[in-house]
Amino acid sequence: MIERNFKMIQTNGVRLRTVVEGDGPLVILLHGWPQCWYLWRHQIDPLVAAGYRVAVPDQRGYGGSTCPPNISDYNIRTLAADVAGIAPALGYDEFTLIGHDWGCVVAWNTALLHEENCTAVMGLSVPFWRMTEAALNPPGMDDQFWYIRYFQEEGRVEAELEKDLERSLRILYYGLCADAPAHSWMKQLERPRSSGLLDALPEPDRLPSWLTQEDLAYYVEQYRTSGFRGPVNWYRNIPTNNGITPELEGKKFSQPAAFVAGAADDVLRYDPDWRATFPDAFEDLRLLEIIDGAGHWVQAEKPQETTACILRFLRGL
């Protein structure tokens, strides 16, 4: 049994099951795919102890939150409005936003779309990118498996992942962590386009060091509740997200910002030149930290180091 203070927050036409704890300035933590609020389990208590009010939602489509059926219900403007509505629901005008993976994408976009209320933003694992057609169909990879392209076909990946939730999550969490052989996630490109996702990733013989059997069981229960359609629908909006946010093209972040990632995170390999171009999007980038020994799930793989980076950024605001 997870002992946390959950609230059902009404925002933007959905109800988000949200851990809300502590008192002080509001910090919202956003998970990505395929996760839920529980990704931040190691950060909540230290942030509360440091004097912050922490809100950690299951985002739209996940866990105990509303899971609308339509693809368009998960476009980036809608996801950002969900997050922006958490603060007034808790009695706040302003908030700091920290996101990971797709939660990081939502954090970046929320900071740009709601800059009058989002006063600082921190991203984990996914640099700020305007995702173009190349994210769906990387040049020269027409015959290779690529998960984002695979996700576009409705129902296929849902059926694959929901067949055995425990096995699916075990493979996904392992494939992107530092415990796996180097670049295990990117080895999917060695598979033919007709492959499934799980076939393209290594299957571990034991859980990674940072994930207990109890942790995995909790995640399985969340996906037994929500399924994968909502979470995968986030990816199905990639072709249209830029078109519905034309005002963000070339826009810079005015707020204090930070970025942290694991040194072994394959997502950083999507753009080998990201370090050179990423800082140009920010007027006040205060922290850019790469944590050794961590892969994609940096706050779970290296919780103390990640929490220290978060607190350093927050205390400087």
SSE layout:
Layout: E1 6-11, E2 14-21, E3 26-30, H1 44-49, E4 53-57, H2 76-84, H3 86-89, E5 95-100, H4 102-113, E6 118-124, H5 133-136, H6 147-150, H7 156-162, H8 165-175, H9 213-226, H10 229-233, H11 238-241, E7 257-262, H12 274-277, E8 285-291, H13 298-301, H14 303-315
Parallel strand pairs: 3-4, 3-5, 5-6, 6-7, 7-8
Antiparallel strand pairs: 1-2, 2-4
Helix pairs in contact: 2-4, 8-9
> What's the total number of strands?
8
In CATH's first tier, which class applies? Alpha Beta
**Secondary structure tally, helices:** 14
Could you state the oligomeric state of the chains shown?
Answer: single chain
Largest sheet: 8 strands, mixed
**H/E series, N to C?**
EEEHEHHEHEHHHHHHHEHEHH
Q: Quote the CATH topology.
A: Rossmann fold
Mean pLDDT: 97
Model description:
The protein has 317 residues and is α/β, with parallel strands linked by helices. The protein has a single domain (6-315), classed as Alpha/Beta hydrolase fold, catalytic domain (Rossmann fold, 3-Layer(aba) Sandwich), CATH 3.40.50.1820. The protein is 32% helix and 16% strand. It is built from 14 helices and 8 strands. It has an 8-stranded mixed beta sheet, sandwiched between helices. Strand 7 (257-262), helix 12 (274-277) and strand 8 (285-291) form a beta-alpha-beta unit. Helix 2 crosses helix 4 and helix 8 (165-175) packs across helix 9 (213-226). The longest helix is centred in the C-terminal third of the chain and has 14 residues, at 213-226. It is globular, with a radius of gyration of 18 Å. It starts with 5 loop residues before the first strand and ends with a helix. The mean pLDDT is 97.
